[in-house]
Amino acid sequence: MARTASQVGKSNVSTAKCHERRVAKLLTEWSSREFRRRRVEGRESDTVLRDLTGDVVPADTKNRCRFNLEAKKGKGFSLTSIISGYSTCTFSEWYHQSSYDAMLVSEALKLDIKPMVFFKPNPNLDWVAFDMSALDFLRPKHIPITDLTWPISKRLWFPHLLFDHYAYCGSISFNISHTKNRKNRVMVPLQLAPCFICSWNDFAANVHPDSFFFGESWHAVDVETESRLELQGQASLQS
Q: Is 54 in a helix, a strand, or coil?
């Protein structure tokens, strides 16, 4: 017996909530800071200030995350669809939503928030996609002392894919109203940023959790370490 539209809808909501709880658990275990599902819906200014806009948020507002975190469990990811249908594919829709919400939070909090999407290319894998400019603040768990070029080149230091065509294709429009009713859709064009795509396991194993959050103590140590390594690199090049 076929399920009704209502039954399918309830099942999808339940699956989405389960995935959001899983993402919150992954982030909590990795960062040693508690994350939770967002409790309220909507993008009104009061809501954004109180509970942000992402699917998953830090439980303690003092732990201000640098990303708007979206958790997507639905089917639809494929490299073919990104390359051949980047302006209409499901992945771009997910990334567009995270980018739009990141923009809202950035304006509300006067901070530079980046988009990040957790998704599952298949049921057994957790992947993430995030704005390439996050390289400005993400740092390795273990800085490779022998790799003296890292502070200069600012490249990603673990396995990944880079989709940079967003920077050249112009604005892409998607519905931001959370409704499938065509009459109520609100299509918003956005210039999406190039993004890295990688497995969550690789991200968690290689990125220092402190750099995932706003906080001056990390940057003070980080700048000192980068300066030391850069001086070592320059000395090595001169010798």
A: coil
